[in-house]
Amino acid sequence: MIIAIDGPAASGKGTLGKRLAHHYGYRHLDTGVIYRAVAYALMQSGHDLRDEAAAVQAALELDPEKFGNPALKTQAAGEGASIVSAIPRVREVLLNFQRQFAAGPPGAVLDGRDIGTVICPDADVKIFVVADPKVRARRRTMEARARGEEADEAAVLADIIQRDERDKNRSIAPLKPAADAYLLDNSQLDIEGGVRAAIDIIEAVR
Ligand code: C5P
């Protein structure tokens, strides 16, 4: 069983993915972390984020052991991820890693932007998570502050809108719901409510 969860920045898809994986005893991959790790590697080595050769090299050298690095959660890494993720060769290099993860037993939950459309077009269930941009900005700001970072809600909102635009309008694997995805709007839901709504969808189709 493969559960594909896609959606825009800070829509809650990561938390939802983690919770669903726990509920079903499946493995979970937050695919945004992969692009964040590539961007972070370039930032650390002083490369331009649009340097295709360096980005491809960083993607080839990806080390999943480092996915837990808190530096990957920052705004800067997210913004960088949205730049490197628009490079077709980078996406190509990272495709197999994601597909292999999805294929292993006992089942997997992957969340990202193109899981239902490109990575796992045959996923058993596809959920596209949306939420009002202002709600997303508020949640992201609170999370950043909880980590001890300074965060200005208006700036976070501007970043979210800019990132969504870039992700939606890129030529390769743009952010969009798969034709057979279920839409889940969690603007008015808390985490538990979102998890329950997703489980209802999954139970109805499996
Ligand atoms: O979800 P997260 O905020 O961690 O994603 C960071 C960036 O990585 C996104 O803005 C998007 O550009 C890119 N990404 C992607 N495809 C995915 C996951 C993330 O292009 N499957």
From TrEMBL:
Keywords: ATP-binding, Cytoplasm, Kinase, Nucleotide-binding, Transferase. One of its GO terms (cellular component) is cytoplasm. GO terms for molecular function: ATP binding; CMP kinase activity; dCMP kinase activity. SUPFAM superfamilies: P-loop containing nucleoside triphosphate hydrolases. This is Cytidylate kinase. InterPro entries: Cytidylate_kin (IPR003136), Cytidylate_kinase_dom (IPR011994), P-loop_NTPase (IPR027417). It is an enzyme of class 2 (transferase). Residues 3-202 form the Cytidylate kinase domain. Its main location: cytoplasm. The keyword Ligase does not apply.
